[in-house]
Design goal:
By secondary structure, the chain is α+β, with helices and mostly antiparallel strands. Helix content is 53%, strand content 14%. The longest helix is centred in the middle third of the chain and has 20 residues.
Length: 192
């Protein structure tokens, strides 16, 4: 992960930073908190490792925000500080590449859930049916039951048609999609 410090908010006697790398470096939290708390004029340091949020309250007559930021940079070795509204293109690219190659946390969790469900269905059926076949058969049976009950063949809703079109495209063009590079947004193109 690209290591940057985001200056989130600054007001007299209060400074909030965000250091995303802290989510993956819990051992760095206490030393950073101790280092910042040791500054003359620091009143309180709160670090939330899961979000990487660092909140400092301090006596503005004894300590400046720039001194706190310099101390955070010194302790972490991070040179890049982004002001409010600035974005780290390197961090965004690293996150996009990680998601592209490894999937998001949510996608991996969903995949694990459905793989385990598939194994349970295979075990229960003695290997004769899998989750995909069971789901398709269930939907086909439900559709047939609706036709029998109403005597009509309804048109699918627009969102189903849209999903089927999208799913067909992604299935048929999987190789092209996997090979496509991550492209910058228009803002990034104009900025860089």
């Amino acid at each position: 992960m690209v290591r940057v410090i985001y200056l989130v908010h600054e007001s007299p006697g209060r400074l909030r930073l965000r250091l995303p790398y802290l989510r993956h470096a819990p051992d760095a939290v206490d030393p950073l908190a101790d280092h910042l708390a040791g500054l003359q004029g620091m009143e309180e340091v709160q670090i939330k490792p899961y979000t990487g949020s660092v909140l400092c309250t301090f006596d503005r007559h004894q300590l400046r925000s720039s001194d706190i930021l310099a101390a955070a940079q010194e302790r972490t070795g991070i040179a890049t500080v982004l002001q409010p509204g600035e974005r780290s293109l390197a961090e965004e690219e690293a996150l996009a590449q990680a998601a592209l190659h490894h999937g998001s946390d949510l996608a991996r969790a969903a995949a694990c859930f459905f793989k385990s469900m598939n194994l349970e269905v295979l075990r229960a059926s003695g290997g004769r049916i899998d989750l995909g076949t069971l789901a398709a058969a269930t939907f086909a049976t439900a559709g047939a039951a609706e036709v029998v009950a109403t005597g009509k063949l309804p048109l699918p809703p627009w969102f189903n048609l849209g999903w089927w079109a999208f799913r067909t495209f992604t299935s048929m063009e999987k190789n092209a999609i996997d090979a496509a590079p991550v492209t910058p947004t228009q803002d990034e193109v104009h900025a860089g």
